[in-house]
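[step 3/7] inverse_fold.run input=structure_tokens len=383
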């Protein structure tokens, strides 16, 4: 494991804790919106395309490197359209540099995390959509933080663009130099920040210079099961993968593990997911954290198999990454293997997630919590 030095928090960081949104950024706007803003600033509209090419096409943030813009105007345009949204607090790497976790401080002192994962055939980033989370899942570090605020569209996009730049620099050896996949599985419930997350997806998938040019099929949006939002997402004409964080096949247990289940029960959540699959043709990913002696019993595997058999779904079992002091722990490997066997015997496609980042507080919220507890950084999101 390698670690970059921590950046000390500013003396007034505690006073900066407020739920205000960040300054406007070009990633908040589509290309016509950027052109209109540049024109309002007294510059020709094509300057918006130039700025966008630097940010999305070349992954450049430094105005000094934007030499195709006149020196007299580049700093002013950058200040208006490329303000700093993410300040690095800590970056950690493990797996010989193939996994890199970043902790960011936002303009109001909130902390969020994102992770880059390099594989031989792809580079994936996991990004946050909220500072903290309001879903209160008891086994999740972020869920215990409470919600500080939603992230802006640009704050979401900027995580991916920054880490795309890391990949492009060649820092992830043994992986392609281009970011190809984005998963909304970091801090927060993406569909609780619906409009900004959908705008971020569109920005990530729009071709440069309007966006990052990723394939919609390489974007995954997770949810604990906000049924109206799932149904709304199905009507967006997007081809992203829906990942449903189920974690229990029965209402009695899911009411405890995923409190939103008290509003929308398993049957209704799955019905919305099947509606999404039918509308988009995309297989739903069923996320299931394996928690020792809680949700890993053979009968629950059998029940899950009956619920999913014949559906356009894939189960992604997640070995729990326990947080310090938590009563929750990962299922033993023999129990995990038996769970997999029973699901596959039911005809349900099942894999076990690669456990990346355990050395670097890999579970969402752990790095933010550690930084906050050490006094190195300050945030309202103290998972």
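[step 3/7] decode complete -> sequence:
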């Amino acid at each position: 494991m390698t670690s970059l030095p921590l950046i000390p928090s500013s003396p007034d960081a505690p006073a900066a804790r407020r739920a205000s949104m960040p300054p406007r950024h070009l990633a908040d706007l589509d290309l016509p919106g950027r052109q209109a803003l540049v024109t309002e600033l007294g510059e020709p509209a094509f300057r918006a395309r130039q700025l966008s090419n630097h940010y999305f096409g070349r992954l450049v943030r430094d105005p000094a490197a934007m030499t195709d813009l006149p020196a007299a105007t580049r700093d002013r345009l950058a200040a208006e359209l490329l303000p700093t949204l993410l300040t690095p607090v800590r970056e950690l790497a493990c797996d010989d540099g193939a996994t890199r976790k970043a902790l960011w401080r936002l303009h109001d002192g909130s902390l969020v995390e994102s992770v880059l994962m390099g594989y031989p055939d792809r580079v994936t980033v996991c990004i946050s959509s909220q500072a903290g989370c309001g879903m209160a899942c008891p086994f999740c570090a972020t869920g215990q933080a409470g919600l500080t605020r939603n992230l802006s569209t640009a704050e979401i996009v900027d995580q991916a663009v920054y880490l795309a730049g890391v990949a492009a620099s060649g820092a992830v050896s043994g992986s392609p130099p281009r970011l190809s996949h984005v998963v909304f599985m970091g801090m927060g419930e993406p569909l609780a920040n619906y409009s900004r997350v959908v705008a971020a997806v569109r920005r990530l998938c729009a071709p440069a210079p309007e966006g990052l040019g990723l394939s919609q099929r390489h974007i995954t949006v997770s949810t604990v099961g906000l049924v109206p939002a799932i149904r709304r997402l199905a009507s967006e004409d997007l081809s992203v993968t829906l990942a449903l964080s189920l974690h229990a096949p029965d209402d009695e247990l899911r009411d405890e593990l995923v409190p939103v289940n008290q509003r929308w029960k398993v049957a209704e959540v799955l019905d919305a997911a099947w509606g999404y699959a039918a509308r988009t043709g995309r297989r739903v990913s069923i996320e299931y954290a394996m928690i020792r002696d809680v949700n890993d019993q053979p009968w629950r595997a059998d029940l899950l198999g009956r619920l999913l058999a014949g559906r356009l779904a894939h189960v992604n079992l997640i070995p729990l990454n326990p947080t310090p002091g938590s009563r929750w722990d990962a299922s033993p490997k023999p129990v995990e293997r038996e769970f997999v066997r029973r699901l596959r015997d039911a005809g349900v496609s099942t894999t076990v997630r690669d456990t990346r980042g355990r050395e670097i507080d890999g579970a969402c919220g752990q790095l933010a919590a550690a930084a906050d507890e050490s006094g190195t950084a300050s945030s309202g999101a103290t998972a």
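[step 4/7] annotate
The domain at 114-365 is CATH 3.20.20.70 (TIM Barrel).
The longest helix spans residues 153-168.
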